[in-house]
Amino acid sequence: MLPSSRIARPITIDDAQVRALIDDQFPHLADQEVGRRYTHEDHISVRIGDHHGALFPRFALDDPLFARVADVIAPSLDRFSFPVSAPLETGRPGHGFPYHWTLVEWVSASTAAFVPLHASSAKELGSAVRQIHSPAPKDAPANPATAPGLGALLPEWDRLLVFASLRGAPENRVLDVESIDALFRVGAVAPVDVEPTWTHGRLEPRSIQSDRGHFAGILIWHRFGAGDPAADLGGAATVIPLDMRDEFYAGYGEVSTATAWRAQSYQLFSALHHIEIDDPFLARMAWERLIELGLAHEA
């Protein structure tokens, strides 16, 4: 769910509340310092000591995701050979914080938003995404970002397209509205020709970690559930320049033509969403990908 579709004001949490929740519910961490915090549009992450973190949702609609994710992802963790900031335990509401939250393993690295990945890391990232995309059982909980399909995004796409066209591109460029809209709609009508897999649902520059340009892991798992793997491929494409795409798919493996078209549309949707968030690192990468695709030109 995008911030624009959230009506309620996002809540926050202060360090005193974090300290009280940790001490009450995870007393083995009572001697660990409440460290630096990172505020995202939909959640807040706080470092706890050297090896743990706590993620707190900012909207009520995400409460069920945070309540379930530690249990949902646990059976998959042994399959992952890459570093994972894994949800380890579920925190309960309390001390004035109204939602469930997660205790996670803290993986120390920068994000790809701040330190872009080197070309040598594209294959590793592709392999990691392939490991996520194992077949999901019929009763697997749905991923809210990857299960509904591109058709469900059309009203939000139209709104984001207007916003990005009015915002304007850097370096005296303008968005080619007709071309990007036509390209998005090609993928939006492409058939979903694969069975649902487990999906991350939040692959983007802030959830993919970078250690001086080397792939260093994946964060922000609260949406983990069954859905269309093309959505994750499109999210990863926001991080991977076109000249690194072949290496990414060398690690991931082959996909169908229809899946490639859907992934392209998810990438375009993510790019416009990142432009709206107004984070300078996200916006820079979004415009870089759009310029590579020939979708922004000189005014």
TrEMBL record:
Q: Name one Pfam family in it.
A: APH
Coiled-coil ranges from the UniProt annotation: none
* Keyword vocabulary terms for this entry: Kinase, Transferase
Give the InterPro entries listed for this entry: Aminoglycoside_PTrfase, Kinase-like_dom_sf
Per its UniProt entry, which superkingdom is the organism in? Bacteria
Q: Where is the Aminoglycoside phosphotransferase domain?
A: 65-259
Give the GO molecular function terms.
Answer: kinase activity
- Keyword Kinase listed? The answer is yes
Q: Does the keyword Electron transport apply?
A: no
State what protein this is by name: Predicted kinase, aminoglycoside phosphotransferase (APT) family
